[in-house]
Every structure is written in C-alpha cells, then in structure tokens.
Amino acid sequence: MQGNLPPLLILLASAVVAVVVCRRLKLPALLGYLMVGILIGPQMLGLIRDSADTQSLAEFGVVFLMFSIGLEFSLPKLNALRRAVFGLGMGQVVSTVLFALPTAYFGYLSWPAAIALGGALAMSSTAIA
Questions:
Q1: Alpha carbon distance 4, 127 (integer Å)
Q2: Which of 30, 33, 118, 128 has the fewest CB within 10 Å, making it most exposed?
Q3: Are the beta carbons of 36 and 15 closer than 8 angstroms?
Q4: Between 52-72 and 5-24, two packed helices, what is the crossing angle to 10 degrees?
C-alpha cells in the first residue's frame, strides 16, 4: 500500500488543481480529469508509471465516471429530450453499424463482428460526447 501512496497523492492533488482551474474557466470537471490523466500519465510527464496497480486504479476511475454520469441522469430531463435521445441516438447507432458493415462484405470481419464493431463505435462516441 505504501508503494501506491505517492502516485495516488500525485493523482488526487493534480485532480483537485485541475477541477479548480476548470471551474474558473467554466469548463466541466470531467475535462480536467481527462487532462490530468493525459498529462501525468506514462506517455507524457511519466509521474504515474504504467503498472498493474495503475490498471486497477484506472478501472476504479471508469466506475466512478459511470457513477458521475448516472448522477447527471434524470427521468424528467430524459422525458423532455426523448425525441433527440431516442431518435438521434438510434440513428447514430444504425448509421455506425451500417458504416461498419462493408468490413464484413469485403472479408475483413465476419458479419456479427462487423455489427458488434459498429455498435461499439457508436457507444464509445456517445460516451465521449
């Protein structure tokens, strides 16, 4: 546990600073968290090394991200935006799956794999947006 404490403290302190900066700039805190992850990760400054412990911490980060998205979710808001959410959302999924289907036609993937790839691309772009 003591070996994990300094990277965890660096991560938490950086996240606090990023959230303060993002709040001052009237940007979402999530953007600050993403920028901190990119900046202090192993590919940029290298303050946090890539290891199994870091992978576990990243998995917790994804869980907390999904939790925070769930906190923003409300049924009255969804009801008010139902046409945009369900209509445009369904259109995005269908168009992305149709975009991925030529990979199966030309033999790069099987049909089920192409459909799964299209669905995964649609879901990942929704999460980013």
A1: 29
A2: 128
A3: yes
A4: 30
- pTM for this one? 0.50
Is the CB of residue 104 less than 8 Å from the CB of residue 114? yes
Return left, alpha or beta for 96; rule: phi > 0 is left, psi -120 to 50 is alpha, else beta. alpha
Phi and psi angles of residue 41, each rounded to the nearest 5 degrees, phi first: -70, 175
- The C-alpha atoms of residue 30 and residue 32 are separated, in whole angstroms, by 5
Strand (E) or helix (H) holding 26: none
Q: What would the pLDDT profile of 10-61 be if each residue is shown by its tens digit?
A: 878 888 898 899 889 988 887 888 888 888 877 777 777 767 767 777 777 7
d(CA 93, CA 101): 12
Do residues 37 and 27 touch, judged by C-beta distance below 8 A? no
